């Protein structure tokens, strides 16, 4: 049997066109990017083991957020998505190392790789909040949604998980792969009036 060299394929291969679009004046107000360098996994605490898992992870330098929050350490972002359930994000290069970090905790948790099921996007720039507000059903004002905040919501009718990364503001969005193309078009349309730069 021939060796197969399987490489990740973008869900947006035919939709993402790097460059500036929309309002042509000045610097772009919104920057959109697909993060092909990132991989994802689901981390599930075993029944009744959430606190024990949290204690063990703190001891090795990982902060397991409670509720709809996210934290990042040791190259791993952990995003709270439900009771004792987190979405983990790391680079593809570091996925093996991330998996090894959780292997000794098999009695406390289960790790399920989920990178192929989701597309990871970033939305940043001075008008990122304005563009997203056209699509999301949540309040993005800094008093309601700030750095560290996480929300499972819908954007233009598409289920997404969004978290704010920094006060710039910059956001990361995880979307089911089958909806990524539609969401990308919605985001580009929403950002057009501010000048939209699609990153390489």
CATH class value of the largest domain: Alpha Beta
The main pleated sheet reads as: 7 strands, mixed
Radius of gyration, in Å, reads: 18 Å
Q: How big a fraction of the residues is strand?
A: 35-45%
Strand order of the largest sheet: 1-12-2-8-11-10-9
Oligomer: single chain
Annotation keywords:
single chain, 200 residues, alpha+beta, Gyrase A, domain 2, Alpha-Beta Plaits, 2 domains, 7-stranded mixed sheet, 5-stranded antiparallel sheet, globular
Describe the structure.
With 200 residues, the chain is of the alpha+beta class. It has two domains: 19-36 and 116-198, 2-Layer Sandwich (Gyrase A, domain 2), CATH 3.30.1360; 39-115, Alpha-Beta Plaits (2-Layer Sandwich). 18% of the residues lie in helices and 36% in strands. The protein contains four helices and twelve strands. The protein has helices at residues 50-59, 95-102, 128-133, 180-191, and strands spanning 19-21, 30-34, 38-45, 70-73, 76-82, 85-91, 109-113, 118-124, 150-155, 158-166, 170-176, 196-198. The protein has a seven-stranded mixed beta sheet. The mean pLDDT is 91.
Short note summarizing the structure:
This protein has four helices and twelve strands.
């Amino acid at each position: 049997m021939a060796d197969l060299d399987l490489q990740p394929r973008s869900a947006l291969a035919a939709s993402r066109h790097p460059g500036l679009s929309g309002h042509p004046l000045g610097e772009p107000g919104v920057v959109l990017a697909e993060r092909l360098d990132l991989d994802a996994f689901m981390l599930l605490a075993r029944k009744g083991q959430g606190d024990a898992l949290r204690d063990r992870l703190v001891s090795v330098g990982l902060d397991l957020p409670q509720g709809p929050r996210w934290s990042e350490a040791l190259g791993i972002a952990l995003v709270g998505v439900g009771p004792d359930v987190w979405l983990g994000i790391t680079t593809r290069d570091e996925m093996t190392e991330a998996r090894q970090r959780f292997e000794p905790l098999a009695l406390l948790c289960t790790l399920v790789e989920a990178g192929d099921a989701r597309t990871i996007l970033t939305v940043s720039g001075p008008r990122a909040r304005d563009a997203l507000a056209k699509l999301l059903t949540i309040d993005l004002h800094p008093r309601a949604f700030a750095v560290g905040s996480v929300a499972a919501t819908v954007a233009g009718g598409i289920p997404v998980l969004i978290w704010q990364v920094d006060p710039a503001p910059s956001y990361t969005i995880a979307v089911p792969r089958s909806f990524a193309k539609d969401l990308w078009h919605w985001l580009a349309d929403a950002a057009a009036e501010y000048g939209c730069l699609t990153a390489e």
